[in-house]
Amino acid sequence: MPRYLHQVGFLCALALVWEVLARLNIWPELLFPSVTGILASLAGEISRGEIAGRTWYSLSLIGTGLSLAIVSSFLACALAMLLPACADALSALMAVLHPLPAIAVLPILLLWFKTGPHSIVLLILFSAFWPLTASIHAGLRSVPVTQVEVGRNLGLRGFGLVGNVMLPAALPAIIAGLRVGWARAWQASVAAEMVFGASGKDGGLGWFLYKKRYFLEVPAVFAGMLVIIAIGLLVENFLFKFLERHTIERWGMSSE
Asked: Which of 61, 154, 180, 248 is the most buried (most CB within 10 A)?
């Protein structure tokens, strides 16, 4: 049975337990709505079109910020592998900035760039860049010397050696870094929208959650969270699994 069916079964069992607890009225319905109430709220938000627009807005910001993080991470790691001075500089920056939570950068972004989508994209870039860079750099450094020497004997040098030998060999670590970067991008996006608010009519799922919480529409808050969870499951079980099946599993780099 596919792994995602196991996950669906677990989530259905969790929803059943939640529904039973809600119907027992142990906690106020305002704070602990039933699953059926949450699903009804989700259906209402979908029919009105608001949650779809908010989701698309968040995904567009995450896509932009994550794309910038991926490109800049690969470039930084390639330079670090080719130039020892760049490797030292990257290691020093990672030691200082990787442990720094993205939420701590929010006040500076607010002062430097004001509120708006560009500030959220920069926060997503900062949040996803460091885990991505750490994974890619560690993966490239773990490539066996024999594989690198074979590439050199075939005449590969510089970016050709990195792109044709080292990156494919480091792919398991790169995909693991992409997973972490994707999760960090979502966290940064939702946190930023809750703090920054919306610019005019624009605003993503973070703003949707904040607004519904403000008006005590708790089922709608859970409905927004369900959308985030559903997108995460889709990306994990289709996009990342597709990448793994057509790369590391096909090349015999996975034990599963």
From this structure: 61
What number of CA atoms fall less than 13 Å from residue 230's CA on the CB side?
Answer: 10
Stretches in the chain below the pLDDT threshold 50: 200
pLDDT of residue 256: 60
d(CA 210, CA 195): 9
Name every residue whose Cβ is closer than 8 Å to that of residue 67 and which is 6 or more positions away in sequence.
none
Q: Which value, in Å, is the radius of gyration of the alpha carbons in the chain?
A: 22
- What is the spatial distance between Cα 178 and Cα 38, in angstroms, rounded to a whole number? 31
CA distance 109 to 98: 17
Which pLDDT score, from 0 to 100, does residue 129 have?
94
Q: Per the structure block, which two tokens stand in for 74?
A: 């690969």
Task: Give me the half-sphere count of Cα atoms (radius 13 Å) on the Cβ side of residue 57.
Answer: 22
Task: Identify the residue whose tokens are 């708006």.
Answer: 116
Cα–Cα distances (Å) from 229 to 76, 144, 223, 234, in that order, read 31, 38, 10, 9
Sign of the C-alpha dihedral computed for residues 55, 58, 64 and 67 taken in this order = negative
Interval 107-163: pLDDT, tens: 888 889 887 888 889 999 999 999 999 999 998 888 888 888 888 888 888 778 888
Q: Which residues contact 141 (CB under 8 A, 6 or more apart)?
A: 81
Measure the CA–CA gap between 227 and 64, rounded to whole angstroms. Answer: 20
The model's pTM is 0.84
Contact, 124 vs 185, CB < 8 A?
yes
